[in-house]
Design goal:
Keywords: Transferase
Number of helices: 4
GO biological process, one term: phosphoenolpyruvate-dependent sugar phosphotransferase system
Pfam family, one: PTS_IIB
Helix content: 40-55%
Strand content: 15-25%
CATH topology: Rossmann fold
Structural class: alpha/beta
Protein name: Phosphotransferase system EIIB component type 2/3 domain-containing protein
Distance between the termini: 17 Å
CATH superfamily: Response regulator
GO molecular function, one term: protein-N(PI)-phosphohistidine-sugar phosphotransferase activity
Low-confidence stretches: none
Amino acid sequence: MSEKTYTILSACGSGVATSSHIAASLTSSLKEMGVSVNVRTCSLGEIDGLVESMHPSIVVATASLETVHNLGEIKVMNGIPLLTGVGRQEMLNEIAEYLKSQ
């Protein structure tokens, strides 16, 4: 039986720099933890449409998601620990545990 792959949206203001760094960090770190993920980078303006089409398990953002209205029960996390390193491992552990519980 194949391992489940979880979808994560990595969002920042422009959908380029910080979201790409976070996506790479999530992909490699979670793989090392035995969790397979597909991380899609996006800008804040793209989240509404991507939530509808991709149905992510988690949205990791480096900016406020106040303008996003359709997150429903999707877990939202602040991505700053993956940029600064402060609280990084704790965040990765929380994400891995959450995904494995799905």
